[in-house]
Amino acid sequence: MAKFALPSGIFEINEPVIFGFSIVFNYKYFISFVLSPSSACIWPVIAIKIGLMNVPTILVPWTIPPILYGLIVTQFDWKSIPISLLSIATLFLVYLPFALIVKKDELKKKIFFFFFFFLFPFIYTSIKYVFK
Questions:
Q1: What distance in Å separates the CA atoms of residue 22 and residue 29, rounded to the nearest whole number?
Q2: Which of 88, 99, 108, 130 has the smallest number of Cβ neighbours within 10 A?
């Protein structure tokens, strides 16, 4: 999924991923989809409250890549770069457990279909000939 999401995700165009991979209607991804924005916003809010980073004052287009977006919005404050990277890492950690659950379920489906469509006919025919 990440291979397909990266080119459009760099420029914040996420609709093909959200609706194409059915994140909205998949309850396993929906939980992380709801939790991720609030968890990513924690770090910039803390950095602004502490005084580590400038307050965002410039309005920029939403298609600017995430790290550059934080840099421009804070009037090129270099301290926004590590905060942006920390937010991206937080998003990764929020999505990771749910992506692993989905990957495990996909593997179970593949094993089931392999057994049912490839091994079961051989087992059935051998049992049929033994008890004939």
A1: 9
A2: 130
| Structural domain count, the chain | 1
Cβ-in-10-Å burial (0-12, 13-18, 19+) of 87 comes to buried
Could you read off the pLDDT of 108-123 as tens digits, one per residue? 888 877 777 776 666 6
Cβ partners under 8 Å of residue 83, min gap 6: 43, 44, 47, 52, 53, 70
Residue span of the structural domain in which 35 resides? 2-130
Q: Coil, strand or helix: which one is 108? A: helix
Kindly report the pTM of this predicted structure: 0.74
Contacts of 98 (CB under 8 A, 6+ apart): 28, 29, 31, 32
- Find tokens 């008890």 and name the residue: 131
pLDDT surpasses 80 at 96? yes
- Which distant-in-sequence residues (6+ apart) come within 8 Å of 29 by Cβ? 21, 22, 23, 95, 98, 99, 102
Distance CA 129, CA 48 (A): 75
